[in-house]
Specification:
The chain is α/β, with parallel strands linked by helices. The protein is built from nine helices and ten strands. Helix 2 packs across helix 3, helix 2 packs parallel to helix 4 and helix 8 runs antiparallel to helix 9.
Length: 312
């Protein structure tokens, strides 16, 4: 599909990213999918140090926690595993003290990266929130705890706005040149119902419109998949998650918007070498295979000598 035919409501002035720039990605699973493309293209990316998080409030809270502006929620246990209500289940430990160390380590890495990053990309997934009854806090993950321990609610943009304004103010103070890009995940959370998913996404769009200023942009990942592609061919068999083909379509659009012509030339050259690396050699011990590997090694070394800032 010709990306030039894509009709978007307004033109964004995206920051131009080049190799050597530091990128931080926070948010839903679609954020992690795009991180894979950034890394394949040779960029330095910190991706979701507290794991995949879908709701805007816990996402803003982790930024505030990283800068010491708010306290953690209580930890919880699932059998003998310790977990944090401020992180996904990918962050866990076998005792309380070790989990605290792990949280401190990840939050310190997030703080350091945000202070140095050129771009922060935040992907909102859902406005449906789970509020822990005992504390009243919105959790990042329920960790398969009893449903009776939470109240589920659809938060409106006005409720989510204050914590994001606070987080953005902290970011501007810590890194005045940081560019923030918000996007909304194209994943449709049909477990909540189609109408409920649409209501949820509308609150996310509204939140972005309320926080936008000259240093904040919106990238139309949701629109590219659901309005431009508009076909279940571009979704996995669950009808919810975009396929690799769909994420590549979004990546190609992102490339032309966020990268300069020179950066894209470097990426194209890098991708040719990546493709060579992925080539399966039928007889790895053969002379022809060894010649191929030697050619690949020379190309890789030559490329890195020209572009040492590229992350392999």
């Amino acid at each position: 599909m010709n990306l030039s035919t894509t009709s978007l409501s307004q033109k964004e002035s995206f920051p131009k990213i080049q190799h050597g720039d530091s990128i931080v990605q926070l948010g839903s699973c679609f954020s992690t999918n795009m991180t894979d493309w950034f890394r394949k293209a040779g960029f330095k990316v910190l991706d979701n140090p507290l794991g995949v998080i879908f709701h805007p409030v816990p996402l803003a809270k982790q930024i505030l926690m990283a800068f010491g502006k708010t306290e953690w929620s209580d930890f919880t246990q699932k059998e003998d595993v310790f977990l944090s209500y401020d992180a996904s289940s990918s962050l866990y430990a076998m005792d309380n003290a070790e989990l605290e160390k792990s949280m401190n380590r990840q939050l310190q890495e997030l703080k350091n990266s945000l202070e140095q990053a050129k771009v922060l990309i935040v992907t909102f997934g859902s406005a449906h929130a789970y509020r822990l009854k005992t504390s009243g806090n919105i959790v990042a993950n329920c960790h398969q705890q009893a449903q009776s321990a939470f109240n589920k609610e659809l938060m409106d943009a006005a409720e989510m706005l204050p914590v994001w304004r606070q987080a953005l103010n902290e970011l501007k103070h810590a890194n005045p040149t940081l560019q923030v890009i918000f996007t909304v995940s194209p994943v449709r959370y049909v477990r909540d119902g189609l109408m409920e998913n649409s209501l949820s996404k509308s609150e996310l769009f509204r939140l972005v419109s309320l926080v936008k200023d000259e240093s904040i942009n919106y990238f139309p990942a949701y629109e590219l998949v659901n309005d431009v592609l508009r076909d279940y061919r571009y979704f996995e068999v669950d009808g919810v998650h975009p396929t690799d083909q769909a994420t590549q379509f979004v990546w190609n659009f992102l490339k032309q918007e966020l990268f300069s012509d020179k950066t894209n030339e470097i990426i194209d050259e890098l991708m040719k070498i990546r493709k060579m690396e992925e080539h399966r050699l039928l007889y790895p011990e053969s002379r022809k295979a060894m010649e191929y590997q030697n050619t690949l090694k020379q190309k890789r070394e030559s490329f890195l000598s020209q572009y040492p800032v590229v992350v392999w």
